[in-house]
Automatic annotation (TrEMBL):
Ranges of Polar residues composition bias in the record: 42-51
Keywords, comma-separated and alphabetical: Membrane, Transmembrane, Transmembrane helix
Keyword Transmembrane helix: yes
PPM-type phosphatase domain residues: 1-122
Transmembrane annotation, as ranges: 94-115
Record carries keyword Zinc-finger: no
Top-rank taxon: Eukaryota
SUPFAM superfamilies linked: PP2C-like (SSF81606)
UniProt cross-references to InterPro entries, sorted A to Z: PPM-type-like_dom_sf, PPM-type_phosphatase-like_dom
Species lineage: Eukaryota, Metazoa, Chordata, Craniata, Vertebrata
Protein name from the UniProt record: PPM1H phosphatase
Annotated segments matching region Disordered: 37-60
Length: 122
């Protein structure tokens, strides 16, 4: 099943980010949700010295984080493997099939070689 469908899952996942890959001058970013609040750079201390200082905590990270194109490609490949895993699980449940999967995928994009594996293929 993986030999027939894994490459399609990889293609579909890469199609979702193709615009970012074709136009690398536009830096992709992730906006953190409201539940992710900036943290101070130092551990919180309840000493009387800190209470009277009135200093604002220094942000450890910004609400907007840049994501490299390499990370997007790796994420797309990982998502494709997860989708393949879900598809195999559905088939195994529906048809009471035993067994597993062994898969190896190699992708050359933007001057880099990406290798991914599942099962005993390492």
């Amino acid at each position: 099943m993986a030999s027939k469908f894994l490459h399609l899952h990889i293609c579909n996942e890469l199609l979702e980010i193709v615009e970012l890959l074709l136009n690398p001058t536009v830096a992709p970013s992730i906006i953190l949700g409201e539940e992710a609040r900036p943290l101070s750079s130092e551990p919180r201390n309840t000493s009387s010295q800190e209470e009277g200082s009135g200093a604002q905590p220094v942000e450890r990270f910004h609400q907007e984080k840049a994501v490299s194109l390499e990370s997007l490609i790796i994420g797309a490949i990982e998502n494709a493997f997860k989708q393949m895993d879900k598809q195999i699980e559905r088939e195994r449940s529906a048809y009471s099939i035993t067994g597993g999967c062994c898969a190896l995928a190699v992708l050359y994009m933007m001057g880099k070689l990406y290798v991914a594996n599942a099962g005993d293929s390492r």
